[in-house]
Every structure is written in C-alpha cells, then in structure tokens.
Amino acid sequence: MIHNEKEYKAIAERIEILLQDPGNIENEEAQGYVELNILSNLVADYEEKYMPIKKPTLIDTMKLRMYERGLNQKKLSELLGVSTSRVSEYLTGKSEPTLTIARDISQKLDIDPVIVLGIK
Fold first, then answer.
1. At what angle do helices 58-69 and 84-92 cross, to 10 degrees?
2. Fewer CB atoms < 10 Å away: N or C end of the chain?
3. Distance separating alpha carbons of residues 68 and 20, to the nearest angstrom
4. Which residues neighbour 2 within 8 Å (Cβ) at sequence distance 6 or greater?
5. pLDDT value of position 41
C-alpha cells in the first residue's frame, strides 16, 4: 500500500523505468514483469482513493464535442435550433437547456443522457 505522495512518485518513476523494456509488459518470464504488475496495482489503488476522476459536466462535454466536430457556437445553435446567445448561456452555465433541447443535445452531440440531465 502506498502511504503518501512521496512514495507514489517514487513508485511511478520505477514504473516508468520498467516500461522502457517491452519484455516487462509482454513476457511473464521477464524479471520486471511481476514487479511492474504489483507496482501498477499499487498506483491504481492509490489513484482511485486519492485522485478520483470526476464525472464530466454537461458544459465540459459539450465543449469537447464541439471541438471534436469542429463546431463553433453559431454552428451549434443552428444544429440545436436555438439562438447563439442561448448556446452561450448553456456553455457558461447561466442557463440550463429545456428538456426538449437537452434531448437534442444528447442525440445530436452523442452525449450520454445521464450527463445532459446531471443525474449522479
């Protein structure tokens, strides 16, 4: 078990060294294979406890989808059938989409409805 950030960093550095040799990843007979797996599990446990991944917000997810699809606010407003000022309000958190628009956001931007509705 990793007890503090200093140990975490030292183990992460050791993992980086072990990853330099592809045999440590692919060959169960390799000297570093077992060490790499044990240390990786320790790091994963530490990160899960102390560095959990936060659930994505609708704003962050919409911005990501816009980037991925090359959409600006004007194009997104056309896609959703709302004004650009309304899209701006959604992206700044000043306003939340209606249920109808939320459905369109989910379907047209391929965003999980759980994220769109903010269900935890």
1. 130
2. C
3. 32
4. 8, 11, 42, 43, 45, 46
5. 96
* Rounded CA separation 50/17 (Å): 23
Rounded-to-10 torsion of CA 44, 50, 51, 52: 90
Same domain (yes/no): 112, 62:
yes
CA nearest 68: which of 103, 119, 111?
Answer: 111
**79 and 106 together in one domain:** yes
- Verify that 46 and 71 share a domain, yes or no: no
CA dist 53 and 3 (Å) reads: 20
Q: What is the tally of structural domains in the chain?
A: 2
**In terms of residue numbers, what domain contains 98?**
58-117
